[in-house]
Design goal:
This protein is α/β, with parallel strands linked by helices. Helices cover 34% and strands 20% of the residues. It contains nine helices and 15 strands. Strands 1, 2, 3, 4, 5, 6, 7, 8, 9, 10, 11 and 12 form a twelve-stranded parallel β-sheet that branches. A three-stranded parallel β-sheet has the order 13-14-15. Helix 8 links the parallel strand 13 and strand 14. The longest helix is centred in the N-terminal third of the chain and has 29 residues.
Length: 444
Amino acid sequence: RRSLFCSFKMETAPGFEDHVARLQAHHNERMEERKERKQRAAQFIDPTENANVFWQEFKASKGEVMDMLEEAEQVAKPKSSDEVEEGAEGGAKESQEEARARAAAMLREASDRVGALQAKVARASLFLPGYDQRLGNDAVMMLHQQVAKSRSCIFPRQAFRFKTRKSPPADITSLMAQLRRDVGTTSQESHLQGDTLSDALDAAVSFADKQGEVLVKLPGEVGGKDVVLSRLKNCTIFICDSCGALRADRLEGCKVYVGPVRSALIEKLDACVLALAGQQLRVHSAKDCDFYVRMRSGPIIEHSSGLRFAPYNVEYQGIESQLKQGGLDQETDMWSKVEDFNWLRAQQSPNWSLVPQGERAERVSPPGGDSGEIGAGDENEFREEGRESGSLDCDFYVRMRSGPIIEHSSGLRFAPYNVEYQGIESQLKQGGLDQETDMWSKVR
């Protein structure tokens, strides 16, 4: 039997070890690239945008509101004669009217804090999972109900009964004003998720309350900070730098061109053009606006109509390295994957569409192109500015290679370029604009 078995010697095929080594090297290279991508993405992550941190702060604020409501009920509770005597002996006697006024002030404070929590939940929707968003909204609703319950307990409605009217009824406006002064309100119609008072903004990285201006931030002037655009009308804004979070509210007839951002919250825009590249984009209450975007996730819209989307179209010196650093150097089709939270049907939402190919704007650069010379440029650069709709009573000092173009404007005046500073001659020569011509007067 032993003679029936044969011994075999396993031999490795020629080149097998080299093949295994190449596979291992390829695997190591892919793992290293993955590690580098994670490190680049981590630079744009805000440590405060964390679900655990959010819930810790939310629960602490919720506990303060509940304690405040309980204290308000205790303060307004009618005191017995023994308690009144003890207060008089201690020198801290307080009338029932004063106690009710103090309780009303506590209710107002609790109502304001609940409103702040509601805004906090809305802002956190950019990074919270959907389940956590629902929990936060439910908790805020419960706090609103608790405030209303405490208010009805402290200031109960009197039972209805007929009585003789001795004086004419008060005006409803004055009655509502008196009610708000006494017990406050849990709603604020003027509140916006991204709203910020002008005196609370960082003027170095924000623009607010301007009209008909060209506003520019050059590379290095923002440095990854949060940018706020608020209450602007008929302005053209260039943010030629990487940003943290972008918040824009109440813009009308504006054109906004932004470099890479971490996240963007856009509210109450009317007839605007906005171009940005970012991780997330959320749009509230916008109307008749065009968005040129490059996204890592589909844009989200709510309570909006007449929106159109197209690929990102901004160019300036250094943008390629900024996009690569933010992990946005590759164009994808996510710009067209729009989610309308107010449209739950399977059919296409009527609130947004794609910009037709023939109507899409060409590449857009800041005034002066890459050189940073604001006010001098070729036809395409000035055309973006000169076609601004609704310009009134403006003076332009320009040096052009072709005639300026205007539309829907009036009261415009043109004159030769008149800017001087150290180094401008070499910059103009480099851009082919060192010779003055009469094209500044060839307006069309």
